[in-house]
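Q: Sequence in, structure out?
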Amino acid sequence: MENTALAAGEFKATCLSLMDEVAATGREIVITKRGKPVAKLVPYRTKPKAKSIFGALAHTGEIIGDIVSPTPEYWGEWPSPSDPLVLDADVQVTSKRQRRKAV
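A: Exactly. Output:
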């Protein structure tokens, strides 16, 4: 943007037309007093509204492949209580209610 220097007396005489010109062209005007800059007339711009973080990543992911059908790996079944690995582990399965009563 190009700044234009203008004496305070001249600005006072043509203030309204200069404001219209700045709004139309976007050009900034520096107002001087005895050759020293004292003010700047700039076009008014509203700040863009801040984006919400909710939904900021919407439509950025990509699904590759089939997400509905089962996986190709075999997951097996739950071990039965008579399974030797379960018997060797000495793990006692309790519910939350049983653990609360024990405390």
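The chain has four helices and three strands.
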